[in-house]
Amino acid sequence: MWGLLLSTIVTSAADSVNPIAITQQFVLQGMVKKPKHIWYFIIPTGLTNFIGGFLAYFGLVAFIGDLLGTLIQKYGRVIFTVELILGIAFLIAVCYLILGSQLKAMKEEFFCTAKSEANAEEQAAKKIKSVSPAALIALGTGATISELSTALPYFAFLAILLNYQLTFLQVTFILAVYNMIYTAPLMILYFIYKKSRSKFDRFYEIIKTQMTKWADILAPAIAGLIGVFLVFHSLSLLLK
After folding, report:
1. Comparing C-alpha atoms, which of 64, 59, 48 is closest to residue 15?
2. Which of 11, 47, 97, 126 is surrounded by the most beta carbons within 10 Å?
3. pLDDT of 123-179, one tens digit each?
4. Distance, CA of 5 to CA of 170 (rounded, Å)
5. What are the transmembrane regions (predicted)?
């Protein structure tokens, strides 16, 4: 048990310095309406890892994989047809985003004489605090799942954990220790922000300005890539 606890501490400490999660919170921290709302990002991040550990240890991951395999065998054509429709929907969304961006640019150009630069900056500063708790929960959960492909320490921890025969309470304790250490840097970053909030907010305003400039390019590009992938993947399986 002591060997498992030591392994838990080492792997969680290595996993906790994942630059992706820290960077995400660094950006989001200055975009929440209230500083304490960032806990809606931190807690789901830890809980997602916690639940993932339970699913892996008690064999539910393999069960879900087998279930999905069975569903694909029975309803493969229906699933891949839905995937094709989603891909087409993403491609339509790309056209909508590009058209909307062009219309927005034309509107701003038409009304630019009616707005002063100072007023525009004031509006941008107000909009920076715009990420809701619900969005933070979704981001925390989704980001943790998407980062699994780069979370080598987490998979090493699960491999070690699966070699032990533990009770439910023991598994709960080990997973709680792992995720407390894993989320520790995110908690520390929150308290640092509370101490130096004004400096962080100035930096976030710069980030917000750059994000606004690139959003009109990145959003259609990402949606287009997803749409192309879904269309080609579904067609390759439907045409077999």
Report:
1. 48
2. 11
3. 544 545 566 778 778 877 777 776 665 667 787 888 888 888 888 888 889 899 988
4. 10
5. 38-58, 78-99, 136-162, 168-193, 214-239
Question: Under 8 Å CB-to-CB from 141, ≥6 apart: which residues?
Answer: 44, 45, 47, 48
Rounded Cα–Cα distance for residues 114 and 106 (Å): 14
> What is the C-alpha to C-alpha distance for residues 176 and 173, in angstroms, rounded to an integer?
5
CA dihedral for 96, 102, 104, 110, sign (positive or negative): negative
Q: What is the pTM of this model?
A: 0.60
Q: Mark 153-174 as b/e (b = at least 16 C-beta within 10 Å).
A: bbeebbebbeeeeeeeeebeeb
pLDDT tens digits for range 60-80 = 766 766 777 777 778 778 888
